Amino acid sequence: MRLTQTLIPTLREAPQDAEIPSHKLMMRAGLIMKLGGGLYTFLPAGLKALRKVEKIVREEMDRAGALEVLMPALQPREIWEQSGRYTVLKDAMFKIKDRQQRDMVLGPTHEEVITDLVSRQINSYRQLPKTFYQIQTKFRDEIRPRFGLMRAKEFSMKDAYSFDVSWEAADVSYQAMYDAYVRIFKRCGLRTKVVEADTGAMGGNFSHEFMVLADSGEDGIVECESCSYAANLERAERMTPKTETTTTDKAPEIVATPGKRTIDEVSAFLKLAPHDLIKTLIYVADGKPVAVLVPGDRDVNEHKLARALGGIPVQLADDATIVQVTGAPVGFAGPVGLKIPIYADSGLKTPRVSATGANAADAHLVNVLSGRDFQVAEYFDLVIAREGDSCPRCGTRMREKRGIEVGHVFKLGTKYSKAFDAGFLDAAGNRQIIVMGCYGIGVTRTLQAVIEQSYDENGIIWPISIAPYQVSVVVPNTGHAESVKVAEEIIQKLEAQGIDVLFDDRDERPGVKFKDADLMGLPIRAVISERSLAEGKVEVKRRTEKEKNMIPVSDAVTFIENIIRGELS
Amino acid sequence: MRLTQTLIPTLREAPQDAEIPSHKLMMRAGLIMKLGGGLYTFLPAGLKALRKVEKIVREEMDRAGALEVLMPALQPREIWEQSGRYTVLKDAMFKIKDRQQRDMVLGPTHEEVITDLVSRQINSYRQLPKTFYQIQTKFRDEIRPRFGLMRAKEFSMKDAYSFDVSWEAADVSYQAMYDAYVRIFKRCGLRTKVVEADTGAMGGNFSHEFMVLADSGEDGIVECESCSYAANLERAERMTPKTETTTTDKAPEIVATPGKRTIDEVSAFLKLAPHDLIKTLIYVADGKPVAVLVPGDRDVNEHKLARALGGIPVQLADDATIVQVTGAPVGFAGPVGLKIPIYADSGLKTPRVSATGANAADAHLVNVLSGRDFQVAEYFDLVIAREGDSCPRCGTRMREKRGIEVGHVFKLGTKYSKAFDAGFLDAAGNRQIIVMGCYGIGVTRTLQAVIEQSYDENGIIWPISIAPYQVSVVVPNTGHAESVKVAEEIIQKLEAQGIDVLFDDRDERPGVKFKDADLMGLPIRAVISERSLAEGKVEVKRRTEKEKNMIPVSDAVTFIENIIRGELS
What we know:
Two copies of one chain form a homodimer.
Chain A: H1 21-28, E1 32-36, E2 39-42, H2 44-63, E3 67-68, E4 74-76, H3 77-83, H4 85-89, E5 94-97, E6 103-106, H5 111-121, E7 130-139, E8 154-164, H6 167-187, E9 193-197, E10 206-213, E11 219-224, E12 230-232, E13 253-256, H7 263-270, E14 278-285, E15 288-295, H8 302-308, E16 314-316, H9 319-326, E17 342-345, E18 354-357, E19 363-368, E20 378-380, E21 398-413, H10 415-419, E22 423-425, E23 431-433, E24 435-442, H11 443-453, E25 455-456, E26 459-460, E27 471-474, H12 481-496, E28 501-504, H13 510-520, E29 524-527, H14 530-534, E30 537-542, E31 548-552, H15 556-568
Parallel strand pairs in A: 3-7, 15-17, 17-20, 27-28, 27-29
Antiparallel strand pairs in A: 1-2, 4-6, 5-6, 7-8, 8-24, 9-10, 10-21, 11-12, 11-21, 13-19, 14-15, 14-16, 18-19, 21-24, 22-23, 25-26, 29-30, 30-31
Helix pairs in contact in A: 1-11, 2-6, 2-11, 12-15
């Protein structure tokens, strides 16, 4: 392709609203163009790269035995009511009324549609297992779309759904998708970290996220410095910390703490370290108030709290409830004397002399001892894990990282198959319920994540597998007929081998062409100049290397082919 | 692919709401499944066929030099205001408010997005011409979705937009797309008829539709029985009919016609042929009332009327306006004595003694002569053409047909480039406005149109180019190991050649398998049975032929390959 015949509008400066490197580079390299908040047009080179990602995804899904389908984005409200997710996901979904004033949604995911389909089309164990997938445009009413394709209102996703006769069989399907994901990201040139994750609104039993580690990532992760344990912060556990027991003979004593509500304020005022305070939070769990205690320097992980209490919905109590339960204004809650169930983080299990709120305005208690002054109903791991916590598996120190979620696999279980009565007759003729899994890859996000992980100060560094063009051909002086002729011959031969070549045929200075070639990040650059041809040679350079190879003209095509074949094999 | 490993749920009976053959067959052959009104999921075999259509479209667009892009479906209202089409297309578009209560639409077409893009990225004649295309999901709030994919709320379309330096250059781009369309439909196995068409809400100068002739088509067409003239009824012209002059000395005479309002009522009451009556309609053209006269047996073509009056909006007057203009209730309008401009169809140019409304309640006039009793401002071709009219080019009789519009090419001119200020600097450094064309193919509709044109009483007859599988392999008795072994060997060899094969490995009676093979309409059927193998042969039959070929096992693969190659070359 000649550069003058396509449209790759490179920019010297990234637009103001591009915050992270990959977003800046996608804009600067002329891959995408913004239409509105969270809405981007794929320009020709950007789309070429996207199609290559899609092709890899499709090949690996097919290889794993998944069947491609295509489901509507526009969906009737009723099926979302049937799964109970209309309310849960309502704010994230774009809602539409059609001419007949019927409620429709733009589905951000397709569990409802596919399970409804399966419930109608599958009825025998002979038809199972089945995994369906689609690569489809999704819509999400993001509060704050940002980072280009990372968090967009419209994006491309590969979603897949597995249907099995049993929980064990579902594990096999899950593993097949997991393995396919590993291959997909590897082929896209991405280094991913697999972490345990929360199942959230999706429901289900367990899940893994495929994370691309990057400082700009929106997800927090902890990973063990020794073993393979890694988890999303929503999910991450920690080993119960070893704490020294301390004790006292003194009874709890009320201390006036006028206007001191936060841990920081109280700890400074009482001259105690934050971890010597107990943070007391009042939650409403399944409609009933409970107290939750964590060390003063930690925060409650509500996902873990909800799971600890049996998977029921939990939310922070409102001010009125807190006043009613503690008898004090917000900011002075403490466990001593509370008449509601008290749950505490396992970090508090070892009895220690602590300070807590006094359940009275402008007052705290010191010399408080658990077991003596208040009783905990049950201890769980309830805090958000963080750098320095101990690995729940091996006890080694864990570190914190940021990540971009590019893939997510869920063992769903029977949540949707029950809701849509998706069952089957087993070999004995008994009706059973189907066990499901679901699996997503953010296709457009994956494309951008590759850049976030692979660039330098000069621009993008594409892996050969998904580069819009694998080869960039530069003729510094397009006025030199022999250079153009040799370039065109080489290009023709490369294209005949199915290699995508971009020929910079612009009437520009060589410096501009080299700068743009680096910015666009095409993996292999061939320069054909009067000088190189005087030696009968072509300069071939990889984007990842400094070294320039001077290759005889007659060998150039084979040399380039070998680089590409070596990389893709 | 083994039939048991995919999902092709064939049906004996089509669902009640499937009205036309292609819709019935798509449902019966397990290609699509309904989610809601106008919303369909593509099942694996249906999607395979759709992808093949997309591939043909993409190859021919690329070959024509068009650049693939991908634009958002979700679009801000503002760009539709800028083109002035928000009001025009409002009812056809799905409208959305996002969280911030901003108005968005799901764009049923992309002139606004692409012209805005071009206005920002193109500024020199050196960057022109350019044609962009995309294959993308479109949404339309259909009043009455029906006929399966023919008129759906969500569908796949290929839309393309050309940008040129001049009207002449735009004709070249138009022709390139026109030629690509001819190739695309031919490769899909479709016989299309190209007809002149109205530009409608799209605006622009002229356009052609690619029609698939079918009784179920929603579009009316007339075509000349002799020359190549053909046009959509909205557009179709006719040669002015030759009519005998008649005259009378009698003055117009009022006849009481109590309650007789329609042409049929009046003609029966007065014992006159409908064409001896003049039908008088009051229109409001650009805000002012005008009278429009057509022969009593014809209907006004409002598209032609609007064009005749200079491209202004026209609409039938409301009752109050009619009463005000004619002094009579609706149903008794006539040209005699009217004080507003009178336009008449060219079929009325020859003076004839006629009957008309009397502009008085329950009264008509007879013995009316144009020129003597009323004056016509101007004559135009104003009626809807029909079977038996004369071709506007050669005068031969025309016939009427029904068609399915699968493609539409428009010479747009400067409507959008002006609205979005899409200009360029010419070689002399002067700023000029870009001249545009736009080009659409209903991709999902094309897929179904192929079936509407190619089926028999047993099912679909796929052309090899877009068949989900080119070959169906049937082993009547899957208990016969040798049959299965030979079948698998043949399949493996065919698949290694990139041929899609469906192996009916179900434990079903041979009759069921043969019936389903015919219903699915796969182009080539290979039957491997105990009986055929006894002769060392395989039975190969084309879906389009009765003849069965008994081919030696060792030649079967080559025989099938040759059929496929012959068809695709």
